Amino acid sequence: MKFLCLHGKGTSAEIFEMQTEGFRNLLPEHFDYDFVEGENEVPPAPGVAKVFPGPYLSYLTDYSVGSIEEQHRFIMDIVAEEGPFDGVMGFSQGASLAASILLHHQIESPWLPPPFRVAIFLCATYAHSRTSVDGEDVTHKVPTSELPARRRSTDSGYSSDEDSAKDSIRVLYANSTKARIQIPTAHLYGEHDSYLHESLEVVDLCDQRLSLEFKHKGGHEVPMDAISNKKIRDIIAMTCERGETFS
Q: N or C: which terminus of the chain carries fewer CB neighbours within 10 A?
């Protein structure tokens, strides 16, 4: 099993590697992991700087349609150059991007094999759309500081409706799209995670017959205790076994 691994905002590929070391050490030795680095330097995620050194990175500068589309291309270029990958594993923003890629595959080309056979979502946040027609427009709900730079400007400089649409922010909610991720998925989230409702929204975007879930006792984090690591190992192993039929 070869996994593409996508870290969370305000961490890094190296940090994600360390965060997941406990349960990965319990998985088969032939499992291979390719940790991909985000390209944008950002402040550290809450609590991260106390434990892990920087730099702290993000795949996205914002969650606009244009930014999501750009990162889809970035990740799929890696898949084309370094794949094929059997699975994708992401934490927080990384899980959000993985879910978005898989959902857009179902929306745009469901007759083709998906880019991955299994997906592991760790504390996933909302899956965002890369088009101006899919999902629900939530631009008006987003804090000004999180909008694209042109949206924050009093003089936006938009030359066309298309430019404006690319700076909109759209979320793929389960009630805003009929698409569902049609591969085996594992969902891990914390019962005290302030993003728990977003993780559960991603669960609802997957085929429930192919989904497994594990709720740990913590927050927006990968638990590192021995009991949790064994449970995470088990749910990933079961998901991978299911994925063997999705070649």
A: C
**Can you read off the two tokens belonging to residue 167?**
């700076």
Nearest to 34 by CA among 51, 50, 20: 20
Q: Tell the burial category of 13 from Cβ atoms under 10 Å away from its Cβ (0-12, 13-18, 19+).
A: middle
What is the predicted pLDDT for the residue at 247?
Answer: 47
**3-state secondary structure at position 37:** coil
pLDDT, one tens digit per residue, over 69-125 is 999 999 999 999 998 999 999 999 999 999 999 999 999 999 999 999 999 999 999
Is residue 188 packed enough to be buried (19+ CB in 10 Å), middle (13-18) or exposed (0-12)?
buried
Q: Helix or strand or coil: residue 133?
A: coil
- What are the backbone dihedrals phi and psi of residue 94, each rounded to the nearest 5 degrees, phi first? -65, -40
Cα–Cα distance for residue pair 223/9, rounded to 1 Å: 17
Listed residue (206, 28, 195) closest to 119, CA to CA? 206
